[in-house]
Amino acid sequence: MYEMVKGSNIALSALSDNVGSVIVSLGWTSPTGEGDADVSVLLLGEQGKVRSDADFYFYNNPVAADGSVQLLGKAPTGEGSEDRIVFDLTAVPPEVERVIVAASRYGGARFGELDDLRVTLADGSGDDLLRFAIDDAGSVSAFIFGELYRRAEEWKFRAVGQGYDNGLAGLATDFGVDIDDDASGGDEEPEEKAEDEAEDTARPPALTEEQQSGPGEPEPAPGRAPEQAKPAALEAVPAPRRSEEAAQPKKTAARPRTAKKKVTLPKVVKKSLAENDSWKEARLFPVSALKSDRDRETRATSVLLSVMAQVPEFGRRLTAAFGAPSGRMETFTEVSLPHGDTPRRPDGIIRVERAGKLWTALVETKTNGNALKPEQVQAYADIAARRGYEAVITLSNDVALEGSPLVDVKIDGRRKHKVALWHLSWAEVAHQAQMLLRHEGVGNAAHAWLLQELLHYLQHENSGCHGFQNMGAAWVPVRRGIDDETLCQGDPRLLEVVESWERLIRQVCLGLGGELGHKVLPVRRAKRGADPGARRTEMADRLCTDGKLHAELRIEGTPGVLAITADLRTGKLRTSFDIPAPEQGYPLTWSKRLIRRLAEAPADLHVETLVEGETGGPRGTLERLRPEPADMLPKNGAQITGFRLSLFKGMGNSRGNTESGFIRSVDDAVQRFHSSVVASLDRSASRPTTPVERAAAS
């Protein structure tokens, strides 16, 4: 992989022959696990400006209509998380000369607070071509990682590494985008602002960072004269550009807003016309007739591939990460391909055509607990290499882990044509369908109906597409060994359980993210270059000594992380969430306010006061603390650093996904904690304070 330094550039064709479609990944790690950033892309014309506001792609506008740009969102890695963008360079309009790849942070956060900032670029087969590591991001809220640009009919990449003080809006306006954020300032009020005013009138407000140090100015963008820079101190947003040829007033086009959209949940389903519950609604994809695993695999493949072909935004969403171009998609099932003396029949084929060129992937599907067979996948990889196909995609209920492939497939390096091997879990398929259907929207009502039918099929108990559902053969022996204290460090069964735990957490993130419409990712605190295998070995050693499995989830838009711990010795699951103490006010005020915010939380919620320099402070259940919030205060007057909210429940015993199984108990624990505690905090923050509550606070 080619290592770049700031200011260097290289032609993509010098690194690979397969650069018609490339994947750019922006990555970072956070010491606290809470730090994050959002990517954005700008397409620039010959003047170094966007042709129109439609050339600005970010979280509120993630996909180009022509398929040239698609923001895939965040994915967990061994070194934290990555935000990935797919570029179909063959679809980029000819008048676009530069493509800016940037990221931004919010709420006073700066890129200097993140570690291991990096950008990597991979070709259409998934091979990493180049990497640019950034060590000097500094105190900026927006950052240009690099840019793709045309030179002599070929694409090059330049490592930029330049920051902006005034965030995504400042970066976008510098490149000619009209941002509609002037009207968004009143959309969101600071959390419980009225209560703060009532309770802390005796305390002078602390100065903000901008008041202390003054407004900063963005560094000039590459190729941009310094005198053209816009002062960061100007709060007004330029009015929309108007054509000089306009002879009469025209309706102003909607301008992009960098304020994040609020998720709108689907409308309540209309009342059914059925006389009673025994009347079953007719379905496009029936599941009742499925009797064998072979039937389930055939039906699941046909259902998925047909919906991918008929709902372009869904098909593109699943294949873009695999290097497929944006174009006309057709899908096929049960195709016979020659392979030695015995023809092979892959479960499906995906073919995409663009500008006379074809991209083809073979599909191998498994349902229920059936594992992928290495010899089958190897045969399909060999067939794809001989026939010039681009990829082999495997689908199963298992979840792929970095550094731990599901099947061992050997790729002949002597072949000029490379075949990429990709994996999708059925949980990921359901997650992507749910995100489009419930939160982001699709093109028309027919597409929405098709996605709804697909989701109903995948979630039916007889489909065999329920996601990861077995902790493996090592689960029961490890639990017994922990109870008996007969396990030793280095036992391979411990590592098997740790890998199964990591797969389960990935699936929990997909399920919760699909419900909320936000990205939910496991927190990674590993340093750059950390070996995923070494990290899992360390977790296995801790499991042997402590008898606990631990994970942390970061939910987009929620401060802090949601932690879950499975104590195999006590058979208890603990879900918890830490709330930092306010910077202003009095401890008793903080306690009262927290109790009010938890008005809808369950009575058995445990509240613990976190004290500086001590292992723990006062604690009690919400039921006991509601009448006496003062019991949360340390008796010795120690400084409070925050509060920890926890729920406990018994964990399932069996290794499967039954009602009494461990997998179901973990999923239920996370869902219950978020809906009853984290969401309760969010609702109280958005609820206006009544005069009675303000009087009580004072």
UniProtKB/TrEMBL annotation:
Origin superkingdom? Bacteria
- Show the segment(s) annotated as Disordered: 175-262, 613-636
Q: Where is the composition biased (Basic residues)?
A: 252-262
* TerD domain residues: 3-175
- InterPro entries referenced in this protein's UniProt entry, alphabetically: Stress/Tellurium_Resist, TerD
One Pfam family, please name it. Answer: TerD
Q: Where is the composition biased (Acidic residues)?
A: 177-199
Similarity comment: family membership? Belongs to the CAPAB/TerDEXZ family.
Q: What is this protein called?
A: TerD family protein
Query: Which species is the source of this protein?
Result: Streptomyces hyderabadensis
